[in-house]
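Hi there,

I know you've been waiting on this one. I reran it after we fixed the sequence typo, so this is the corrected version. Both the input and the resulting structure follow.
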Amino acid sequence: MEQNEAGDAQTLVNILNQEQSEDPNFFFRAKFDNEERISNIFWRDTMMLEDYRIYGYVLVFDTTYRTNRYNLICAPFVSINNHWHNCMFAYAFIGDEKTKSFVWLLETFKKAMEDKTPTSIFTDQDKAMANAIEQVLPNTRHRLCIWHLEQNAITRFGALKKDKEFKHAFNQCLKWCLIEQEFEEKWQAMMHDLIAHSWYKRVYELKEKWRLALSRDFFSTGILSSQRSESTNHAIGFKASKATTLTEFYTIFEKTTNRWRSTEKYDEFTCSKSITFTSLPLSRMLKHAAQIALKAIMIFL
């Protein structure tokens, strides 16, 4: 397995070197362990950099997916474009989920993106990742994935799993309380129903990173979770498996990215031929504004 990994990793490095010779702005980095084996590898092409310059205000980063022969951790950097579709900024594999690995990965990402940092970043509850973000991206607003919190809560409902009122209250606190006082009242009322609630206490202590009432003062494009990254992994993983080599994975990754770009081109064409409409009567001035507004917004982004 080690011999296969060494040969496969070298083949991937050769492919990335070839990409760089054809695209001078292509960027990749590899990190080796003490035995001279690749432990981390990162890459992005020129188009990803261009997309990041336009849409890189919000970053979604998730590392809960592994689909390769060596059980390396998939680490896509994604967001959404102006058509609300997935947009790839970079991709990486890392050997573990320790703070040191995340620091290397985020520093590499930052360097690849001309030191431009996102306004906000969405992740899961991984503590090592949070430490790395605080160290490398101190001015970026770190938000927790609502979807992950919801899934983790389900496993901790215990005897309350059948209590519809409790689950409704938790869902309200998680997704719908836009006023701080409303959130505090509902959360405290909900906590009275819990006997053992250490996990909920920890979640409450992290409320600055997920509560809606505290997330209205910064730009997040309306994203509430890291499901964008998960959907990226699943889109790539559609043809990948535990037996997939790194070089095979790269081929699948390229096909997926090209498909997304083709979809964006189609969206751009469709949008350019569309006319905004409304049920309200429009004056000539408002009709003119409706025809050019989206294009102006796209240029601004």
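Quick highlight: The first strand starts at residue 27 and ends at 32.

Best,
R. S.
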